[in-house]
Amino acid sequence: MRDALEAFLSELGAQRRASRHTLAAYRRDIVRVLDLAAGVGCPAPPALWTRDLLERALHGLYRTHHSAASAARALAAWRSLSRFCVRRGLIAGDPARAIPFPRLPKRLPRTLPANDLKLALDRVAVADDRAAPRDRALLELAYSSGLRLSELVGLNRGDVDRGAGLVRVRGKGRRERIVPVGDGALRALDDYVAARPRSVRGDEPVFAGPSGARLSGRTVQRVVRRRLVALARGLGVTPHALRHSFASHMLDQGADLRAIQEMLGHRSLVTTQVYTHVSGSRLRQAYEQAHPRAR
């Protein structure tokens, strides 16, 4: 089964273009079960891959206080490996298929108030520390174009079309899309590039550290927390909150949901529709404008 796991992960990366984060999470979730079956690092024969084993592993996640989302991700990994093993003839049937997914709590995405966010970005623009140009460009671009963290740190200089006001983004599954970028973000990028000690080639990362190496996701997370601490209000703020705010604020201003779906890179409109629940002000405005008995 450990050999099957390696073959499964190779196929997942090559054919389905799973990210390294997805591959690492799948490996972790599956190795946990194999260790439970045969001992840490020991061979695990396919005959041990049973529903009873997977249910014990699932209960173990709950005992160690893993969230329902973590348990659901683990079960998805086990199901994927089971299907792979059935195709390869290692097991006769999929023991994970009969295990129901945990019920996940409905969480609305957290958004930041538009006016407060504008003031926070303006404060970064006038900061006089050395990292301010980079941090301002990073925050402005994340909010202006609704980028995921991985998309933001993965940008190369050649991905930004300054004249057209567009940026080429490599999203989940390595799918590319073209997203508009606002004038404020472009000006912040110009200031950042001008402040860098050397010229930047098209194949070099947009956001880099002093050594020229691409910024890590952890560094971006620290930048967001430090620069937007006033907006956190004790709850913390993440790069994804800027993406959520982009979608919600666009919807508030009347943007079409399909257009937002395209810009966010969502495969399904259902994923994007969560913002209709967040954007209550727009729903109220539409109701008052359209319903004859609203007032």
Structure description:
The chain folds into two domains: 2-87, DNA polymerase, domain 1 (Orthogonal Bundle); 114-287, Intergrase catalytic core (hpI Integrase, Chain A), CATH 1.10.443. The longest helix has 20 residues, at 68-87. It has 295 residues and is mainly alpha-helical. The chain is 57% helix and 4% strand. Strand 2 and strand 3 form a beta hairpin. Helix 2 (20-38) crosses helix 4, helix 6 (132-145) packs antiparallel against helix 8 (183-195) and helix 6 (132-145) crosses helix 11 (239-252).
What would the principal axes of the Cα set say about the shape? globular
Helix content: 55-70%
Report low-confidence residues grouped into runs of 5 or more: none
Rg on CA atoms, Å: 23 Å
Order of helices and strands: HHHHHHHEEEHHHHHHHH
CATH architecture title of the largest domain: Orthogonal Bundle
Q: What is the CATH superfamily of the largest domain?
A: Intergrase catalytic core
**Oligomer state of the chains in this structure:** single chain
- Count of distinct structural domains: 2
CATH topology group of the largest domain: hpI Integrase, Chain A
* Lateral strand order in the biggest sheet: 1-2-3
Roughly what is the average pLDDT, rounded to an integer?
Answer: 85
| Tally of individual helices | 15
State the total count of DSSP E strands.
Answer: 3
